[in-house]
Design brief:
Shape: globular
Number of domains: 3
Number of strands: 12
Largest sheet: 4 strands, mixed
Distance between the termini: 32 Å
Number of helices: 13
Length: 411
């Protein structure tokens, strides 16, 4: 356990502080599984525990309590242990299990909004600008670009959802929305592991409650917003992008960021352009995106790391391929470099002809980043995750957004 504790007490302390704020140290629980005592069906095969079968878990060590950091794994599902692993083949070694746990922690951390707590102003502006855009595009509401007004708008949306859940005197559309929300809550209660999240903006619009919400918003926008105990309950059901708004508001206050200045990555009419215009527009978006990304990545890297061990380095040259469908594809090659640089390659050359490249890829990955509303934030997360995984010689699964895992400049 020395390895994992040293890692998260030093190089990856920022992850431990955000993901396990009350944890002192990790302990490992291990036990042998008696032969024939555990059976699992995998496909058409029935696997039974053998003499070599064992189980592993991580448990939280308590400060001040005598504990070697290794204990018998008597109960996997005791509500205290986590990252449980049952190995019926006996092939998993303790270091293999620990590396698996580190990989899982990295994946969970970079899929979550936690890194926003350490993000600079440009990332916070990108995220919170989406609130202004959503309110204008969906409800026709004009919002001032101040942190205070954006925070109030977020809480008014949540307050409206809580009103729908608690009130009976509602319009027909609101009653339909209430039925939908109650159905989601009941399903979650019946199936606790069922992953279902709501986007309040989408649901309000889908059930044609826009006019009711706008009236509610205008009534409350100049009033002090108070939320009852149901507020923390409803957070569990909100989609991650909405949770990101709340985390970004918290970080904006930490940075004393009062005015939200949208970064200049204009995608407003991107989807409506024809293929030639879309190609030129994508080039402009990428130029702004990568100029910002180089600075933001280095800024947050220097905030959380003391040396260059985990730095994602290389000179990347990309070439956007003119689309024949709505999706954008690109060619990317990498050159050796001690720093991170991203450049567009001339359209007239084939980047794969250069023998000095150390790797390359071609595919549709560009579309997922451009079509996502948090292009800068998600690409920054990818670079951090990929750099850490490479340094630790672990597989990077990619950052999950748009319902799939993504890596930047990697397959």
């Amino acid at each position: 356990m020395t390895y994992i504790n040293n890692l998260f007490d030093n190089d990856l302390k920022f992850i431990k502080d955000l993901m396990f704020p009350d944890l002192w140290r990790f302990g490992i629980a291990h036990s042998r599984i008696p032969q024939g005592s555990f059976t699992m069906t995998i496909g058409n095969n029935v696997v039974t525990s053998s003499n070599g079968s064992n189980s592993f878990s991580i448990y939280p060590q308590e400060r001040g309590v005598a504990d070697s950091g290794i204990r018998e794994n008597n109960n996997l599902l005791n509500g205290i242990n986590f990252f449980n692993n049952i190995d019926l083949t006996g092939s998993t070694t303790p270091i293999m299990y620990v590396n698996s746990v580190i990989s899982q922690i990295l994946k969970i951390f970079f899929d979550s909004p936690l890194i926003i707590n350490l993000s600079p102003e440009v990332i916070i502006s990108e995220i919170l600008s989406n609130v202004i855009i959503e309110l204008e595009n969906v409800f026709g509401l004009t919002l001032e670009n101040t942190t205070t007004e954006i925070e109030k708008a977020i809480y008014i949306v949540i307050k409206y959802i809580l009103l729908i859940l608690k009130q009976n005197k509602l319009s027909d559309n609101e009653l339909s929305l209430k039925s939908k929300l109650i159905g989601i809550l009941n399903k979650k209660q019946k199936y606790p592991y069922f992953d279902i999240k709501i986007n309040p903006f989408f649901l309000i619009s889908e059930y044609n409650c826009n006019d009711s919400f706008v009236e509610f918003y205008n009534y409350h926008k100049n009033k002090k917003i108070t939320l009852d105990n149901l507020y923390t309950f409803i957070l569990e059901f909100l989609k991650q992008d909405f949770i990101e708004y709340l985390v970004a508001i918290k970080q904006a206050k930490e940075l004393d960021l009062k005015i939200i200045k949208p970064i200049k990555i204009d995608k407003s009419d991107f989807f409506l352009k024809d293929e030639e215009d879309k190609y030129e527009s994508a080039r402009l978006i990428c130029k702004t995106w990568f100029n910002n990304l180089e600075k933001v990545y280095l800024q947050i890297y220097n905030e959380v790391f003391r040396d260059s061990k985990y730095l994602n380095t290389g000179l990347y040259k990309y070439q956007i391929i003119k689309p024949v469908i709505q999706y954008l594809s690109w060619n990317v090659v990498k050159y050796q470099s001690d720093s991170l640089s991203i450049e567009e390659s001339a359209a007239s050359v084939n980047p794969f002809d250069d023998k000095n490249t150390i790797s390359g890829l071609s595919g549709l990955g560009l579309s997922d980043f451009i079509y996502n509303k948090n292009t800068l934030c998600n690409s920054m997360k990818c670079l951090l995750y990929q750099g850490i995984a490479k340094a630790l010689q672990l597989k990077c699964e990619g950052v999950n957004f748009n319902h799939s895992n993504h890596k930047l400049f990697e397959i």
